[in-house]
């Protein structure tokens, strides 16, 4: 048995997992605790987990303090959804082409995609600003959707390509022999089989779009009606004080849509990430 | 125009500098069951895919029903193909899998239904029509794949090792079913396999491929009794033919005289094609394991058995000739008195021998084919 461990190995494994989980989850826990504290109890020295007067009050007052909070949450959701749809429309045929067809420059284009990912949006923000200005897209939803989609497409192609490569070529050949055209094969054969992979890509893109909008919204948009949540939260930053408990409450509520989607589609993600790993 | 005719005219295929098909010519008549057989890498699957239109043809012509189809897409060639991995669409029911080619052609629902049900009837799949491929056994999946080929009513069926994913018992059953299907459909079939039993049992004619060339084309019994060269002789037959190095001594009207080491000089009844060169030449004598005997025979060899396999119906012995490394195989009756580790004498008749020249080309055996062929059943 390859999976047989001694007791101290098991302890070690769980200890390792615990350390990683702590790193990932501690900020969420702290955010949650802060959101419960009254404003004057946020910085307590020495640190206390339970402070006096903890309540869910911030979750109610934040809507009054920043009346447009629902709009910001909606904007975030809307922008991320649009980005995801655009990415999927572009990526599904592209990933298929990269997975299946031999063409000149295929490998260099794929490598270029990786390189672009390494550079990232922050470095390109000034030229992008000029581009957006010239296109007249500043202060529109498009200013946040277009660059968002552009930066997520390369990763999505890599992700979906590796999934599509696991679909046996013979399925396409069989359909081709039977007279099906390429688009017909893509639509009727590849898409249904690749659905788990596509769902994974969609979720990864949605989460990515949700996370990256801050940068684009901050630079390309000054119309406060269009702000997504990460920028909208700035309204809790007053001249004198920052309403930290409400900031944290708003952040947690803002994460909620992603969390809910994630919980519902979790089984697809697990299936998608491991599909084809073993012979079925 | 005759339906179901296929002609390959000096067909070649190269990848860069590597020529994988080196000029293959073949004429297939309507209704023939042709099997391409050969070791892996011999180009049999590539050749089939070239006929199907899945691989480009570098040179030469593929002609189906008197029409050159080199550049036509598969669907316009009048072929249907069954793949080794079945290539069923996992998200569709058996019904939709079989209907797929008809859906592509946008046939009416009534026509689709009629054809699918007819194919399902032939292949005993009717109770399975609403199942998904994942719920079927290997044999049933293969039948669905065949059903998908049948509904297109092609002039030529192409099979790419369709049975190699099945277990031995199922393979035997499917072999019989495919032979029956071929008879019922009266269609031309090209069948690729590496399994010589499939080739021998199903084929009207076998095409033996070796390194991108046709080694021999013939009926199964022609290949068994009169292999053209060492390759075919060694490939067809199980266990495989034994080869002994002999020295040519000359030829006369009775055949070719050879000296068998440690056994003496014998005349083998074969027709020499290069009389003047035989004397002194290194030749290869071939004798099938099933043509060796313990008691009778012109030629006797002394050997020691290494391994004896008792299969009930017969005994397979693997032995070493005195002073020779190569293993010599013999098939005897189930109760043959040979024992591992014990020396024995093995005999065979000169008339059962095959003889090959230094290049591996056969000296044709002086046997009449009508004596060998099966009795006429019609």
UniProtKB/TrEMBL annotation, chain A:
It is found in: Cell membrane. Residues 73-265 form the ABC transmembrane type-1 domain. The keyword Iron-sulfur does not apply. CDD domains: TM_PBP2. Keywords: Cell membrane, Membrane, Sugar transport, Transmembrane, Transmembrane helix, Transport. It is a multi-pass membrane protein. Pfam families: BPD_transp_1 (PF00528). It comes from the Bacteria. SUPFAM superfamilies: MetI-like. The chain crosses the membrane at residues 7-29, 72-97, 109-129, 141-164, 185-211, 247-265. Part of the ABC transporter complex MalEFGK involved in maltose/maltodextrin import. Probably responsible for the translocation of the substrate across the membrane. Belongs to the binding-protein-dependent transport system permease family. MalFG subfamily. This is Maltose/maltodextrin transport system permease protein MalG. It comes from Maritalea mediterranea.
Automatic annotation (TrEMBL), chain B:
PROSITE patterns: ABC_TRANSPORTER_1, ABC_TRANSPORTER_2. Residues 6-236 form the ABC transporter domain. InterPro entries: AAA+_ATPase, ABC_transporter-like_ATP-bd, ABC_transporter-like_CS, ABC_transpr_MalK-like, ABC_transpr_MalK/UgpC-like, Mo/tungstate-bd_C_term_dom, NA-bd_OB-fold, OB_MalK-like. The keyword Transferase does not apply. It comes from the Bacteria. The keyword Phosphoprotein does not apply. Pfam families: ABC_tran, OB_MalK. Keywords: ATP-binding, Cell inner membrane, Cell membrane, Membrane, Nucleotide-binding, Transport. One of its GO terms (molecular function) is ATP binding. SMART domains: AAA. Belongs to the ABC transporter superfamily. NCBIfam families: PRK11650.1. This is Sn-glycerol-3-phosphate ABC transporter ATP-binding protein UgpC. It comes from Maritalea mediterranea.
């Amino acid at each position: 048995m390859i999976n047989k461990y001694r007791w101290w190995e098991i302890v070690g494994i769980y200890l390792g997992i615990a350390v990683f989980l702590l790193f990932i989850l501690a900020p969420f826990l702290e955010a949650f605790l802060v959101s419960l504290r009254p404003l004057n109890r946020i910085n307590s020295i020495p640190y206390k987990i339970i402070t006096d007067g903890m309540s869910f009050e911030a979750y109610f007052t934040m809507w009054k303090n920043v009346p447009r909070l629902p709009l910001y949450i909606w904007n975030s959701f809307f922008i991320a959804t649009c980005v995801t749809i655009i990415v999927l429309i572009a990526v599904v045929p592209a990933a298929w082409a990269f997975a299946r067809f031999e063409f000149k420059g295929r490998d260099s284009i794929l490598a270029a995609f990786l390189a672009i990912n390494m550079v990232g949006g922050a470095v390109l923000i000034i030229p992008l600003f000029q581009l957006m200005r010239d296109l007249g897209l500043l202060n529109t939803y498009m200013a946040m959707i277009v660059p968002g989609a552009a930066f997520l497409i390369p990763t999505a192609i890599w992700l979906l390509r590796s999934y599509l490569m696991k679909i046996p070529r013979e399925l396409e050949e069989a359909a081709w022999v039977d007279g099906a055209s390429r688009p017909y094969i893509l639509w009727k054969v590849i898409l249904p089989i690749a659905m788990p992979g596509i769902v994974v890509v969609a979720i990864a893109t949605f989460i990515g779009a949700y996370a990256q909008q801050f940068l684009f919204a901050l630079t390309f948009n000054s119309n406060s009606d269009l702000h997504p949540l990460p920028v909208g939260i700035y309204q809790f930053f007053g001249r004198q004080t920052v309403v930290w408990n409400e900031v944290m409450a708003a952040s947690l509520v803002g994460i909620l849509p992603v969390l809910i989607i994630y919980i519902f589609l979790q089984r697809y993600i697990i299936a998608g990430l491991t599909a084809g790993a073993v012979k079925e | 125009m005759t339906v179901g005719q296929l002609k390959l005219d000096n067909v070649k295929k190269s990848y860069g500098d590597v020529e994988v098909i080196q000029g293959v010519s073949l004429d297939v008549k309507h209704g023939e069951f042709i099997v391409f057989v050969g070791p892996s890498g011999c180009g049999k699957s590539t050749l089939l895919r070239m006929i199907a239109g899945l691989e480009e043809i570098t040179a030469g012509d593929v002609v189906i029903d008197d029409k050159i189809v080199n550049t036509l897409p598969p669907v316009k060639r009048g072929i249907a193909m069954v793949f080794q991995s079945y290539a069923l669409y996992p998200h569709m029911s058996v019904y939709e899998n079989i209907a797929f080619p008809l859906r592509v052609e946008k046939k009416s629902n009534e026509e689709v239904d009629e054809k699918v049900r007819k194919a399902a009837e032939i292949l005993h799949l009717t109770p399975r029509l609403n199942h998904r491929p994942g719920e079927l056994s290997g044999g049933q999946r293969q039948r669905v794949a065949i059903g998908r080929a049948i509904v297109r009513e092609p002039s030529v069926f192409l099979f790419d090792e369709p049975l190699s994913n099945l277990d031995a018992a199922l393979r035997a059953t499917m072999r019989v079913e495919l032979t029956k299907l071929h008879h019922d459909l009266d269609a031309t079939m090209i069948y690729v396999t590496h399994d010589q039993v499939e080739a021998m049992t199903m084929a009207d004619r076998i095409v033996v491929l070796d390194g991108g060339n046709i080694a021999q084309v013939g009926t199964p019994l022609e290949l068994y009794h009169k292999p053209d060269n060492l390759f075919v002789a060694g490939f067809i037959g199980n266990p495989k033919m034994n080869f002994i190095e002999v020295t040519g001594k000359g030829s006369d009207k009775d055949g070719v005289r050879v000296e068998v080491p440690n056994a003496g000089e014998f005349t083998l009844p074969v027709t020499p094609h290069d009389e003047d060169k035989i004397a002194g030449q290194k030749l290869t004598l071939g004798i099938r394991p099933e043509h060796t005997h313990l008691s009778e025979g012109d030629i006797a060899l002394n050997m020691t058995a290494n391994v004896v396999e008792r299969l009930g119906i017969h005994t397979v012995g693997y032995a070493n000739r005195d002073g020779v490394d190569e293993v010599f195989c013999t098939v005897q009756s189930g109760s043959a008195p040979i024992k591992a580790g014990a020396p024995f004498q093995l005999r065979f008749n000169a008339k059962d021998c095959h003889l090959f020249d230094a290049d591996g080309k056969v000296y044709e055996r002086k046997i009449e084919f009508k004596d060998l062929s099966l009795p006429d059943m019609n």
